[in-house]
Amino acid sequence: MGFAMPAFAALIVVFGLVRRVPVFDCFLQGAREGLVTLYRIAPTVMGLVFAVKLLQSGGAVEALCNLLQPAADALGFPKEVVPMALLRPVSGSGASALLLSVFDECGPDSFAGRVASVLAGSSETTFYAVAMYYGSVGVKHIRHTLVAAVAADVTAFAVSVVTVRLFFG
Fold first, then answer.
1. Distance, first Cα to last Cα, the chain
2. Is the Cβ–Cβ distance between 118 and 150 less than 8 Å?
3. Structural contact between residues 94 and 52, judged by C-beta atoms closer than 8 angstroms
4. Whether pTM exceeds 0.85
5. Alpha carbons 166 and 91: distance in angstroms, whole number
6. 61: alpha, beta or left, given left = phi > 0 and alpha = psi -120 to 50?
7. I want to staple 55 with a disulfide (CB 3.0 to 4.6 A). Which of 60, 90, 91, 120 is the partner?
8. Residue-range domain boundaries for the chain
9. One digit per residue, pLDDT tens: the chain, 169 residues?
């Protein structure tokens, strides 16, 4: 299986040479365009990462979790998963770390572990994705994208509990 990527790269080079395409020049042009894109989106991504770290270190995430806990309890949402639900739309790596902490604390086959797993698989890093994709092409007015994406995330939060109850009792 370790030969698949080198074989695929070789296939592309051979195909380009057969079609008389300047393969290396095309590669350099693509790399140059990639660096330009990175240059354009880097400030947005750095700002987003800074905001997440600021909210975490300042205790805002914990305060918001405490504020939302009564509503989560009423909906049957496990308290151990609330921090992950709040962080998932902003940071995939932060949410993954919280997923692992739910596994360590409750176990992967617990109700909380299963809800966290379904939530991780069915929700998106909304704010990161919007910042990356819109930032990379210079879109300033995102219109209804954020509202629709946040609505999808809220739906994923609610349905994760329903799904686990439906399939695991």
1. 39
2. no
3. yes
4. no
5. 28
6. alpha
7. 60
8. 41-168
9. 688 899 999 999 999 999 999 999 999 999 999 898 888 878 877 887 787 778 778 888 788 888 888 988 888 899 999 989 988 988 887 888 889 989 999 999 999 999 999 999 999 889 888 888 887 787 888 889 989 999 999 999 989 999 999 999 8
